[in-house]
Amino acid sequence: MLHNAGTMLQKTLFLIFVAGGREGLPNKSSRKPQSPRCQWTPRGSIKRSASGKAGKRPEPDTRVLRSTILAAVFSLGVLFLVSRVALGRETRPPVLDLDGRQLKSGARYHMVPLQKDRLRGFFSGSRNGTWCPMYVKQAPPAFSDGILVNFAPVGGAKTVRLSTDLNIEFYESNTCPEKPVWTLAPVDKVSGQRFVRLGGMVGNPGPATTNNWFKIEKDGDNYKLVFCPRVCETCQQEDAVCGDLGVYRDVYDRWLVLGGRPLTVKFKRFRR
User: What tens digit of pLDDT does each residue of 239-269 get?
Assistant: First the structure.
């Protein structure tokens, strides 16, 4: 793709210079026989003075030619950069489920932690005495596999790949007004933790949605969840927080938070 972009740039510049060099010149094959008094020229190519004498032919407008060249170079430069970014994303290894198949956007999965004391999937629950918004926690024993999740990689990619920003959405009917999309909450004043809760949105990468983007990284033979958004240039702030997702345990539940011991997981595709 990058080689094609470079070749396209060379061809475009060549055609522009050829066209610019011919601008304002008459076609030799269309010239009429000359006479001593009058020489035929294309209309508008020669100006005559009041005395009827021919003046100098106007020079081609180099400003138009220069603007055309700059526009072509800029357009192909953007194409080159976009192709480079897309190629980089496509070369990242895909995330595999328990059957060795690639994770796909739109499919439903159980995301199951592998630590001996954490062999339960993810669920939603209320905190701090308020029902909404819901927070992400480990499932009760009766729901060991947890709630099914969907993955939505940035840019609408169909395959879920390592180190790629993506949204995570619970596949459930939410009783709260917030959407069942994971997002990182602000620092909790009581515990000092940053909990993962519901209320994000799918897509629309930008400064307003930075907390909605997570990643899947390798952790030995398994995987771990990471928060370190890189969805756009304006999101890459110097004080941006990056880290693994772990578990914070209080009196009642085990909540998913930023930091702590990385939570190792695997993915089991749901089949009807």
Answer: 568 999 999 998 889 999 999 889 999 999 9
- What is the 3-state secondary structure of 14-76? HHHHHHHHHCCCCCHHHCCCCCCCCCCCCCCCCCECCCCCECCCCCCCHHHHHHHHHHHHHHH
Could you report the per-residue pLDDT of 174-200, keeping only the tens digit for each?
A: 789 999 999 999 999 999 999 999 999
Are residues 191 and 236 in contact, defined by beta-carbon separation less than 8 angstroms? no
3-state secondary structure of 219: strand
CB atoms within 10 A of CB 93: 10
Contact in structure between 146 and 270 (CB atoms under 8 Å):
no
Q: What letter would DSSP give residue 264?
A: E
Give yes or no for a contact between 214 and 265, defined as CB atoms under 8 angstroms apart.
no
What pTM value is reported for the model?
A: 0.67
Secondary structure string (H, E, C) spanning 186-198: EECCCCCCEEEEE
CB 72 within 8 A of CB 80: no
pLDDT reported for residue 272: 73
Strand partners, 111: 267
Listed in order, strand segments (DSSP E) in the chain are 109-113, 122-127, 130-138, 149-153, 166-170, 182-187, 194-198, 215-219, 222-227, 243-249, 254-258, 264-269
